[in-house]
Amino acid sequence: MSLHLRSGEQVPPLTAQIARASNPTGTTAMWVRDRLDGLWCDEDFAGWYPRDGRPGLSPAQLATVCVLQFLLGLSDRQAAEAVRCRIDFKYAMAMELDDPGFHHSVLADFRQRVAQDDRADRLLDLVLARLKEAGLVGERTTQRTDSTHVLAAVRDLTRLELVTEAVRAALEEVARTAGHLLIGLVDEDWGRRYGRPVRLGKNPTRPKTRIFAAGNDAYRLLERLHRDGSAYRPGPQAEALRQIVVQHYYRDTAGRLSWRTTDDDGLLKFPLGPGQRVFTLRG
Fold first, then answer.
1. Less CB within 10 Å around the terminal CB: N or C of the chain?
2. Burial readout 40-70 (b: 16 or more C-beta within 10 A, e: otherwise)
């Protein structure tokens, strides 16, 4: 994937006209475009991509989406949907109204690029300089330029959505093939949590509590299948859940469920096959 620079990108006239008519007082996304003329330009990312290959998406646009995603408390899926459907997002990124946007997985790939070396700090330094030029930051104001907390918050929401969706998919698979295994396990609370596709929404409440609740539910389901399903062969969704649990959780020395972070060797990146005994269920 290569970078084709887009300098001085202007908001398409029709996008600007409809965005102004729909939001006469403006929105957060429109404010970013109007007051800062975009946070970054593609030239700021020139060293991140090779010069040849298939043209990639605008990194300045992707970086702006990540900022709006954090400000509005959106998951990757919700942020990609906002780019596709919301006029103010298209205005902020100077997109045509009929632009279909991109797949939500692109954001995770972009954040991996941002996390390399000191790229995040350099991008935030550029933003700080442009905020000063716009008169929004005083010379003596101390600014935090560490992006770690921003990336960690977005990453946790994305991982929470992944785990929750994996539990839901495994439950639906077991209900179709061996529903008797769920008797005594699934109750009304489970129905509320996994009865429909997860939508974290804006500023989801108690994300840490939900992270551990989903993890404990996943462990209970997998333990039930292991203990009571001697004649049941787990399907692909149950196997996927097993791998996701290993990648995102571990048991500490006291047996408590813990959330994997970069402080404890980070997420496991390798796929786990059925014959590998990294994940041990308690019978």
1. C
2. bbbebbeeebeeeeeebbbbbbbbbbbbbbb
**2: phi then psi, degrees, rounded to nearest 5:** -120, 165
Tell which wins on pLDDT, 36 or 179. 179
Of the candidates 44, 43, 27, the one whose C-alpha atom is nearest the C-alpha of residue 35 is 27
217 vs 171: CA distance, rounded Å:
11
| Single-letter code of the amino acid located at 155 | R
* CA atoms of 98 and 1, how far apart (whole Å): 23
CB-count burial class (<10 Å; 0-12, 13-18, 19+) for 192: exposed
Indicate the range of 78-82, 127-131, 223-227, 273-277 predicted with least confidence.
273-277
Pairwise pLDDT comparison (9 vs 32), residue with the higher score? 32
DSSP reduced 3-state for 66: helix
